[in-house]
From TrEMBL:
Enzyme class: isomerase
Segments traversing the membrane: none
Sites where the protein binds substrate: Y110
Presence of the UniProt keyword Aminoacyl-tRNA synthetase in the record: no
Described purpose of this protein according to its UniProt entry: Formation of pseudouridine at positions 38, 39 and 40 in the anticodon stem and loop of transfer RNAs.
EC number(s) stated in the UniProt entry for this protein: 5.4.99.12
Origin species: Paenibacillus woosongensis
InterPro entries in the cross-refs: PsdUridine_synth_cat_dom_sf, PsdUridine_synth_TruA, PsdUridine_synth_TruA_a/b_dom, PsdUridine_synth_TruA_C, TruA/RsuA/RluB/E/F_N
Domain annotation Pseudouridine synthase I TruA alpha/beta: ranges: 9-102, 147-255
Keyword Disulfide bond belongs to the record: no
Family under the similarity heading: Belongs to the tRNA pseudouridine synthase TruA family.
Keyword set, alphabetical order: Isomerase, tRNA processing
Reactions accelerated catalytically: uridine(38/39/40) in tRNA = pseudouridine(38/39/40) in tRNA
Name the record gives this protein: tRNA pseudouridine synthase A
Length: 257
């Protein structure tokens, strides 16, 4: 038996997230079907975590056990020929049998993208939240920095979260602004990329953080209120949940893999 670790990237627009759901149509379903088509095996893959419906991934690891002897360097091309065009396996390697894509993960990074120009980008509209109104990006940065450290993030978790503990650690945040498509002399503010890295994330956590930061950017909340929201440990204290399409799982890091 072999344990294979692979990385998949996908456009999540047409899927109900990564993990298998009763209604089907998930990234996991497509990957398991492709593996069965290739090897004849019925396998269960284990992802580095879940993504919500409509969320994308630049690099999401997953692993599975297989008795197939297909050389590891042939797996990517073989699976991609059996997958929809919006899902691609980009790497494959053999790892120790006790390696687990989720439990072995040490750090995850998500990116959320906001198009703050006047007009929607036709080519990126499926990957950006369009917000043409004025945003104070410096205030958003200040508010985001309030979330650094180890905290109980109940205020930024879905009310449907089933996790026993909502304590997580966010160790890095940053906001980058790409002005390349902003039209000079207009109200265009560019494309805002918000990055959050930590040891784990709760259901809807990044999207609720973004929805709250948008209120900070609009002047509806002062940036220092983010601390008070954290301390409240109450979902009602935070802002709305931002749309899923702007969110992308950016990277997952392991100690040795």
């Amino acid at each position: 038996m072999r344990n294979l670790l692979m990385t998949v990237c996908y456009d999540g627009s047409n899927y109900y997230g990564f993990q298998t759901q009763p209604g089907g149509n998930t990234i996991q379903d497509c990957l398991e079907a492709a593996i069965q088509n290739l090897t004849g095996e019925t396998v269960k893959i284990h992802g580095s975590g879940r993504t919500d419906a409509g969320v994308h991934a630049r690099a999401q690891p997953f692993h599975f056990l297989t008795s197939s002897q297909i050389p590891v360097e042939r797996w990517c091309l073989a699976l991609n020929g059996r997958l929809p065009a919006d899902i691609r396996v980009t790497s494959a390697k053999e790892v120790e049998l006790d390696f687990h894509a989720r439990r072995s993960a040490k750090r995850k990074t998500y990116r959320y993208t906001i198009n703050a120009n006047r007009f929607t980008d036709v080519f990126q509209r499926s990957y950006q939240l369009h917000h043409p109104g004025k945003l104070n990006v410096d205030a958003m940065r200040e508010g985001l920095n309030c979330l650094l450290g180890t905290h109980d993030y109940t205020s930024f978790a879905s009310r449907h979260s089933t996790k026993a503990s909502h304590v997580r650690t966010i160790d890095e945040t940053r906001i980058e602004v790409d002005m390349s498509l902003a039209v000079p002399g207009t109200r265009d503010q560019g494309v805002i990329h918000l990055y959050i890295s930590g040891n784990g994330f709760l259901q809807h956590m990044v999207r609720i953080i973004v929805g709250t930061l948008l209120e900070v950017g609009q002047g509806k909340r002062p940036p220092e209120q983010m601390k008070q929201i954290l301390e409240a440990k109450d979902r009602k204290a935070a802002g709305p949940t931002a749309e899923s399409k702007g969110l992308m799982l950016w990277s997952v890091e392991y100690e040795q893999h």
